[in-house]
Amino acid sequence: MADFRDFQGMIPYHILFPKSNAGGIGLVLPDKVGKAKAGEYEFIETYCVEKNCDCRRTTLLVLNAKGKTMAVIDFGFDPDRPLAGPLLNDFAKQSAAAGNFLEIFVDAVNDNPAWLKAMYANYRKVRRKVDGHAYRGRPFPKPGKFRRQATSPEAAEEETAALFEEMGPASVAPPPTSPLGKALKTHQPGLFSETPAAPTLPDLLDRYRRIVGDQGIAMPHGLRNDLTRYVLGQPRAGDELAVQLVRLFALPEADEEPQDAALRLLGDVLEILRTRLDGQHPDARERMISWQEALARHVFNEGVDDLLCAAVTRTLLDARVEILPQVHEAGSRRLDARGAEELSRSRFLAEVGPAEMFRTFEEMGIDSPFELLEALLEMMAVGDPEVQIALGTAMYSAASPLIRDTAALMLFHPQAQVRAGMAAALCTVEGGCFSPATLRRLIVARNWFPEEIRTCIDQAINNARRARVECASIQPGMTMTVYASVVDGAGAQSLQIIIPDGKGFVCCSILLKMRVGVADAFLIPLENKRALRDFLKIMTEEIAMLESTPEYLDLRLGQALAEGVGLGRVPNPWLVAIAERLGREPWRPTPFDPRRDLAALRTELEIAGAGFLTDLRVRAALKNSGAWPELEPFAGSWFEDGPEVARDVAAVTSNKKTAASPRIIARFLDGVLAERRETWLARLVLTTFWLKSAPRPPVHWSEMFHVAAALADDAMPLKQIPLMVAIAEMTFGAYLSREAERI
After folding, report:
1. Are residues 324 and 217 in the same domain?
2. Residue 193 included in any domain
3. Are residues 313 and 219 in the same domain?
4. Are residues 234 and 329 in the same domain?
5. Cα separations (Å) of 718 from 312, 410, 672, 708?
6. d(CA 649, CA 643)
7. 165, 656 Cβ separation under 8 angstroms
8. What is residue 523's three-state secondary structure?
9. Are 313 and 382 in contact (CB under 8 A)?
10. Residue 475 domain-assigned?
């Protein structure tokens, strides 16, 4: 479904004026037009709401009867201006039928002057509402005076390049919000040098309060842009948010809504910082340190609400960021400063004893070791690792089987030091202390750990068997439906496995990431068939997931686990819970070798015959691949990020005369993409497996195989592989969009 809240800084007219019937027209296609199917459609006008902006244009969203966006069209009212169009918005995902809807729009504007006149009136009304006074711009061209024509992508690129030439190397990026629309501001004296007002924390928190109940896939585009600008542009942003969190939780009658909004904002900040770390931005490490130091100074401090400390700890854990020593030290100091009446946990074990703490665990009413571990981590994860190891070791001998089962799961602790300490303690535990369920979990997960921990687990398994502990049986495999996303431009892939659960369903969600392994795992309850339908609609329409197979699930988990073991990383314990629910055989790490697996795929095609390996098939696949990022949702995120991108742009734009996008594209092909050729080869081979597993793939897997094979041929220049050229173009577009977020 289209998200009307914000489209690149443009807001639909009917949201600005909810009582008005203006702001778009309906369209009925009685017959198919090109790739546009017969049916009902709407053209929704969106307008810029930046104060004092006079860009004199609109962006139209073309929606089908189900609310799916079929095209995004930019239209400037002044035909003599650059990028006036009409043209397809190069920064939006377009459907295969987008070009046909562009043609339909051009004909409608030319043949229906009344609609164009209505757009002028709508624009004036928006400017009056936003600027607080009547529109003072020059008159618009008379409707019907000019015959508008669609701007081709090639012509749009030339006009964009001309704008960049005029702007000079210091102004490669267009101003913030709608990329093409705001580029026009370079021709309005005095406007290009202006920057939008810096986002403030109160404004961001207010916007978060409005979406705090929406647990959708992502926050609105404009909000993410503003949050990124806040994170990167405010040196004291971390302290500001940390202080605000303390204030919100200290109120006598605290309102949970602003608390939840602030915590969600913090989680999104950590995601932005983690993404920049993954992209190897030069300042990423320093910014992460600065934010965690701010949390250490203000949140993990004496006298601060325990609920806040637990909530922030949970947010850090959910974000899968490394909790830095500064936070651990602050957490330990906070606990040690609580005094004799409320002993710190570091003194609790020595002066009160583990039994009292175990009684606290039992009083929580939790009956799952996985949930108890989460609660324990909220209490302890930022504390002294030695204290956590001591407590975990004592838990092995607790009277409660639940607490003993939880102790074994501390092998999955997010801190490597605690994992190592718990593994060493595991070897010394008497075999009779292990429950049948814990023995099964150790057997299922042993191969997911590095060798030094795996050796300890094997010793514990032997101890349990000598004590005649029977291993709990693995439940028979359940009926499951597997959905998988493509491996995106950041190397991430989502797996969603749906299984029945009473009258409803449970989604076993697993996130894999290249250079990480299994990045996350959790369970999502779905109450009934309607909840399942809504969930699957989001998965298939917004994330472009494909139905896959259990065998593909096993393949990808084996590859990801092998990568994690090699890096010394472990998945979180919920992967064990998922394995138990699915009743699969233990997933074994299986190293992924792109070139070896590519050779195996070639053998399959040779056996299949049917001319899959002919020169004609190869040429057709390479040609088709150039359109995938534009036409196929699975390739919509395939672009590069990181300092190497900025380096390549700077190498070209340092000379004003060569600051044209074709030269930047060529530089990417010889620079950042050439350097990451092996990474892209791995991504394309993984995508070949993904397509091969799908009953209804958008393209046949043999086509992706041929593109991957071309990439594996080191003698083949990247400029001769259309997909890589398209990725270079996407990289430049993404670079411009990111630069537009900067203050």
Report:
1. yes
2. no
3. yes
4. yes
5. 46, 47, 11, 12
6. 10
7. yes
8. strand
9. yes
10. no
Q: Could you tell me the two tokens for 87? A: 């043209």
Distance CA 201, CA 204 (A): 5
Q: In angstroms, what CA-CA distances link 368 with 159, 398, 402, 525?
A: 61, 16, 7, 15
Element (H, E) at 54: none
Q: What is the pLDDT of residues 55-72, one digit of tens each?
A: 888 999 898 877 788 889
- pLDDT band, residue 6 (cuts 50/70/90): very low
Structure tokens at 339: 């005094």
Query: Where in the sequence is the domain holding 496, given as residue range(s)?
Result: 481-582
Under DSSP, is residue 742 helix (H, G, I), strand (E, B) or coil?
coil
pTM over 0.85: no
Cα gap 361→274, rounded to integer Å: 32
Mean pLDDT on 375-391: 81
Q: Is the separation of the CB atoms in 508 and 499 below 8 Å? A: yes
Q: Which residues pair with 7 in a beta bridge?
A: 10
Specify the residue for token string 């606990």.
335
What total number of domains does the chain contain?
5
Pair of tokens at residue 1: 């479904």
Q: Which two tokens stand for residue 470?
A: 């029977």
Per DSSP, 36 falls in state B
Per residue in 276-296, pLDDT (tens digit) is 787 677 788 899 999 999 999
Backbone angles phi, psi at 674, to 5 degrees: -65, -40
Here the tokens at position 495 are 């797996």
Q: What does the buried/exposed string (b/e) look like for 613-638 if buried means 16 or more CB atoms within 10 Å of the residue's CB? A: beeebbeebbebbbebbbbbbbbbbb
Residue 2 counted as domain residue: no
Report the candidate in 460, 428, 465 with the shortest Cα–Cα distance to residue 445.
460
Which residues, 6 or more positions from 405, have their beta carbon under 8 angstroms from its beta carbon? 369, 435, 437, 438, 441
Tokens matching residue 225: 């842009």
Separation CA 705–CA 530 (nearest Å)? 38
**CA-to-CA dists, residue 664 to 632, 649, 668, angstroms:** 24, 6, 6
- The one-letter amino acid code at 738 reads R
Any idea what DSSP says for residue 514? T
CA 376, 379, 382, 384 torsion-angle sign? negative
What's the rounded Cα separation, in Å, for the pair 31 and 336? Answer: 75
Is position 474 within any domain? no
Among the three residues 560, 582, 604, which one is the final residue of a domain in this structure?
582
Comparing CA positions, the residue from 486, 436, 487, 484 lying closest to residue 464 is 436
Residue 388 tokens, joined? 């956590």
- The strand order across the sheet containing 481-484 reads 517-526, 504-513, 492-501, 481-484, 546-547
Q: Are strands 10-12 and 546-547 parallel, antiparallel or unpaired?
A: unpaired
Instruction: Quote the Cα angle for 132-55-168, to 5°.
Output: 130
167 and 251 inside one domain:
no
Strand partners, 29: 39
Please give the DSSP secondary-structure letter assigned to residue 21: S
Element (H, E) at 389: helix 385-395
Instruction: Please state, in angstroms and rounded to a whole number, the distance separating the CA atoms of residues 291 and 294.
Output: 5
d(CA 435, CA 402): 9
CA-closest candidate to residue 78, choices 51, 103, 58, 60? 58
Q: Which of 606, 604, 624 is nearest to 707 (CA)?
A: 624
Among 21-30, 152-161, 256-265, 673-682, whose mean pLDDT is lowest?
A: 152-161
- For the cut 60, the answer to whether the pLDDT of residue 322 exceeds it is yes
462 shares a domain with 321:
no
Query: Do 155 and 223 sit in the same domain of this protein?
Result: no
Rounded mean pLDDT, 509-519: 90
- Give per-residue pLDDT as tens, 593-649: 999 999 999 999 999 887 899 999 999 999 999 999 878 888 988 988 777 888 888
Q: Are residues 158 and 72 in the same domain?
A: yes
Q: Report the alpha-carbon distance of residue 681 to residue 677 in Å, rounded.
A: 6
DSSP H helices in 470-549: 529-537
**Cα–Cα distance, 197 to 403 (Å, whole number):** 53
